[in-house]
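Private note to self, pasted from the team thread so I don't lose it. Backbone tokens:
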């Protein structure tokens, strides 16, 4: 598959962005189609743009409260706890984010 991408000069992240975009529906799909050509440089930029536009926004104080009160649930896998922790930590606005 890599040879096919290289032969046709297809960037792997470009394919990933296009595949992701195909999974979108309604308003989100309309939003992606409305983006200017060559507006997104890579998958990371696409992810950030998508999250900035479509992520549910919470009050920063609510996020800090969740962060302060996060505890591992009984029988929760460490991996699941870490994922949940990172999700909350990454949602904290940069200007009030505690050090890692």
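Design output:
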């Amino acid at each position: 598959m890599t040879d096919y991408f290289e032969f046709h000069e297809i960037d792997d992240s470009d394919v990933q962005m296009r595949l992701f975009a195909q999974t979108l529906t309604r308003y989100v799909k309309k939003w992606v189609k409305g983006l200017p050509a060559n507006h997104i440089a890579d998958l990371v930029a696409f992810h950030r743009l998508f999250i900035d536009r479509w992520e549910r926004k919470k009050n920063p104080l609510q996020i800090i409260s969740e962060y302060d009160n996060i505890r591992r649930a009984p029988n929760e896998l460490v991996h699941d706890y870490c994922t949940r922790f990172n999700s909350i930590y990454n949602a904290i606005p940069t200007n009030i984010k505690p050090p890692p």
